[in-house]
Every structure is written in structure tokens, then in C-alpha cells.
Amino acid sequence: MNIQRIISSPFVRAVQTIERLSKKIELEIEIDKRLSERRLSSEDLPDWLEKLKVTYDDFDLKLPGGESSREAAARIRQTVDDVLLNDNTDTVIIVTHGNILSLLINQFDNHFGFDQWRKMSNPDVYLLTYPNENYHIERMWKEEYNV
Predict the structure, then answer these.
(1) Looking at residue 144, what DSSP letter applies?
(2) Are 117 and 126 in contact (CB under 8 A)?
(3) What separation in angstroms does the CA of 147 have from each of 6, 64, 105?
(4) Within its chain, how far is the Cα of 36 from the centroid?
(5) Is the keyword Nucleotidyltransferase in the record (predicted)?
(6) How far apart are CA 66 and CA 68, in angstroms?
(7) What is the tally of structural domains in the chain?
(8) Best CA proximity match to 75, nearest among 122, 107, 45, 110
(9) Model confidence pLDDT, tens digit, residues 95-140
(10) pLDDT tens-digit profile of 42-96?
(11) Cα 56 versus chain centre, distance
């Protein structure tokens, strides 16, 4: 696989996740704010998990100071579309966070929701291909890789 670009969320933990590979293949990490994790709310939510679950059922629900699922999904989808449709590179690594990644996956598989998000590992790896202008997404991470 000839990796030509690495694009990451600006969050430190995302950059740290890909740093070793970046150095190994001598490829600079590009930062894209659109890959930042979704902000559920600006308020402290003791029941944040329940609130998050509701946002998978109601993509337009926007908690105070937060971002709706629809807004977050559009943000990450725009990033992916920019890379796939406007870039002449074949292989790009995009590093982001679980919740917003799950919303991206939902764009291609509307059965991917809250329960699937909860089953994601950390880290996790998905391969998105675009053969013949049709998106295909597949989980690549194997449980025995968990650290």
C-alpha cells in the first residue's frame, strides 16, 4: 500500500496515534480541524451516554453548545469527499475520533449506530474505498491487535 497523505484531527491523541507511522514512512501529518471530535454539549452532562444515544436516533438533536449528529456527519463527510473527489492520491490515512467516525460510517451504512459505536475498539481501523464511484467501508482492525 503506497500511502500518499496522512490527515489528522488536531487533537493530541489523534496525532500521537499516527505519529510513529508518519515518521516510519517519512510523511508529514496534515492537520484538518474538520476531523476534530464532535462536541456533544458545552454543559457538563452526568448522563452524557444516554444523551449521546438519543443523538443517533435524532440526527438533528442539538444539545446546548454542542453539534448535532447531522452537522458532525456533514463535517467529516466533506473532509472525506474533498480527499476522494478532489485529490489525485490513491491512499490517504485519515485519523479522527470514534464518535465522528461512527457518524461517517453511518453515511455508508445506516444500520451503524450507537450500539456499533459502543463496540468499536480504541484504536480502530476502517478501510473506505471508492471503486466505480461507489463507497465501500470495511473494518480492518482485528481484536488481537488491541493494545
Answers:
(1) G
(2) no
(3) 22, 35, 23
(4) 9
(5) no
(6) 7
(7) 1
(8) 107
(9) 999 999 999 999 988 899 999 999 998 888 888 887 777 778 888 8
(10) 999 999 999 999 999 999 999 999 999 999 999 999 998 888 777 677 788 999 9
(11) 15
Cell numbers describing residue 42: 458545552
- Residue 135 three-state SS: coil
In angstroms, how far is CA 122 from the centroid of its own chain? Answer: 12
Residue 144 has pLDDT above 60, yes or no: no
- Residues present in the chain in total: 147
Structural domain for 33, as ranges: 5-38+45-145
Quote the CA–CA distance of 93 and 35 in Å, as a whole number.
Answer: 12
14-17 contact pairs (CB < 8 A, 24+): 14/95, 14/96, 14/97, 15/95, 17/95, 17/123
Q: CB neighbours of 57 closer than 8 A, spacing ≥ 6?
A: 113, 114
Instruction: Give the CATH number for residue 102.
Output: 3.40.50.1240
